[in-house]
Structure formats: C-alpha cells, structure tokens
Amino acid sequence: MQHNSKDLRDKIKMVHLRPTKQRLALAELLFAQGNRHVTAERLHNEAMDNGVTVSLATIYNNLHQFTSAGLLREVVVDSSRSYFDTNVSPHHHFFHETTGELEDIPGNELNVDNIPALPEGTEISSVDVIVRVTDRRP
Prior knowledge:
It is found in: Cytoplasm. It comes from Sneathiella marina. The structure is a single chain. 17% of the residues are buried. This protein folds into 2 domains: 5-84, Arc Repressor Mutant, subunit A (Orthogonal Bundle); 89-133, no CATH class. It has helices at 5-14, 21-31, 40-49, 56-68; strands spanning 37-38, 73-78, 81-85, 91-96, 101-106, 130-133. The model has no long low-confidence stretch (mean pLDDT 91). The protein is α+β, with helices and mostly antiparallel strands.
C-alpha cells in the first residue's frame, strides 16, 4: 500500500504523535514499500542513504513510539535481535536463520492447540509464533 505525504502526516497525527520532519521521513521509509520487517540498524542505513540525517538513538525512539501507538509491531527473534513489522494484523513468522530475514505466515494458516491453563486472573492477549527455518544442506 503506497502512502503519500498527507496520508503519512494524517496517520501519525491520528495516533497523537507530532508529525516532525524526521518522523515523516522515517514513516515514508517504513510504509512506502508495503508490509516489511526492518531492524533499527537497517532503517538507519536507509535513512542515511536517502539523505535523512538522524541518529540511531532517534531511530530507536521513533520505532518504539510507532510501536506503542500501534503503527508497528515489534518481533523479538532472540535477546539480541528485534524487527519492526509494518503489518500489525494478527500473524506469525518464519525466521530464516541463514539470511536473518522474517517472512509472514498468515494468522489463519497456523493453529496453536493445547495451551496450558493460564495463571489465575489472566487472559491471552495474543500468541506469537516464530518458526525458525534453515536452508537444506545438499
């Protein structure tokens, strides 16, 4: 889904964030290409390549603000690796260990059964499944 500048400005304002120049530039990089998974470091490199002067700390701050506002979903692959997903609908992921890429699994294509009894006073808010795959060796 393509976004123009006004759409991005409206999208940011709708979640009560200020549409600063840097935030709009980062939103353009994130949302102009349709659904994607990006690390903070990759987004920082893309920003620099596109002439957007921004620190890695600002990238992290904005990614977390977008996530808190519901514009992104954070996918934690392991303790040292997080991706930010522009697809916020319920779904799961394949993680390609060889390439470090994430690939969406539509939410209706995977069933999770036999969930143990929940701790008292809790309810399931979501279930996130990451299926790790590696290339077959010849």
